[in-house]
Amino acid sequence: MMLHFASSNATTLPRAHADSIPFSSNKIPEILSRLSVPAGSPTTADIRYTLAECEASPTPGVAAQTCVTSFESMIDFAASNLDTRNIRALATRLNKEDGVTPRQTYMVESVRPMLVASHDKVACHKVPYPYSIFACRTTTAELYTVTLSGTDGTKVEALTACHSDVTPTFFDEKISGASGDVPVAAVIPLSFAHREGWVGSVLFHKNDLYLGSKMMLHFASSNATTLPRAHADSIPFSSNKIPEILSRLSVPAGSPTAADIRYTLAECEASPTPGVAAQTCVTSFESMIDFAASNLGTRNIRALATRLNKEDGVTPRQSYMVESVRPISVASHDKVACHKVPYPYSIFACHTTTAELYTVTLSGTDGTKVEALTACHSDVTPTFFDEKISGASGDVPVCHFWSQEGRLWVRK
């Protein structure tokens, strides 16, 4: 997709300074004078536009909204609506210190859902003004971290929101063709796009799993090392220990790897997913086996996984055709799923699951053969590190292929 990540040069004022400047459509002449803005200039138009938007009637369905004129005020609004000052900020990050990038094509490299309770989110967007003004509101959007790669080599960890309700909200607008059946995705703070960019573990309806069906997939392996338990247990694994973790692993504080660490720790420490009997993150293969054995009630277990006919496991993103679909017979509650999550070494998010299981034979255009472990969920409510797809109503199970690094544990 064509995107432009641009930073404004607007200054963020301290609260005392910001509060001393009028912020009202009734005070526009005084505002222009205080800010030395010519009356007929484009900046004046920005001021009039933003003041009008900030003073508009509340958006239907939004619990709370406001415009804030300082970072301190933003924190107060977020804390008030989240009922705690123990909060954290998420944002889009670029691998360029100056944040200057051209408008260019970006390719989606990964999509990672963020697990945040539906109403536990406050969004703040910068709006046009001579200094930093943010339009803030509560939101129920689904959140994702999308890794984007630009044609000039720019890497972006893009905070992305998907709205099931495409009715215009505060400073948003619906896009052409949006009907409410497909969520509308917004890369924060820029471009809109239909939510179609899944890579790797594409989600699809079970009705689409038939002989001859084709879909675009990318089976990719990470280079993360799996540590022995003794080594893994010696390394802190807690959001409270991030500085120590970065030091132990020699990870630069502002790097994409540091962002992966923060993301995974937050997900692993999130509240238990409703409907999941047990879930955890494990830092070693031995811990994974212990968790699976404990929940399956026996150590007589075996692991299922996706297999490729390539020793190096390296394949391009390409079209695959379904050649066969074979059900795997396992009792409903006798399954433990473990998915690898982003981290410098192998970390797995494990949880019990009641999904239906299949082995699907896929044939790629380059001759690659894949025996893909496939899970189909009748309940499309998001589970640990999973998410629902557009149009899913619960009547048709939602399925996904597993990467070759994941493991599904069952009794022998």
From TrEMBL:
Name the UniProt record assigns to this protein: BURP domain-containing protein
Pfam hit, one: BURP
Superkingdom of origin: Eukaryota
InterPro entries documented for this protein: BURP, BURP_dom
Boundaries of every BURP domain copy: 1-207, 203-412
PANTHER family the UniProt entry points to: BURP DOMAIN PROTEIN USPL1-LIKE, BURP DOMAIN-CONTAINING PROTEIN 7
Signal peptide: none
Keyword Signal part of the UniProt annotation: yes
Keywords: Signal
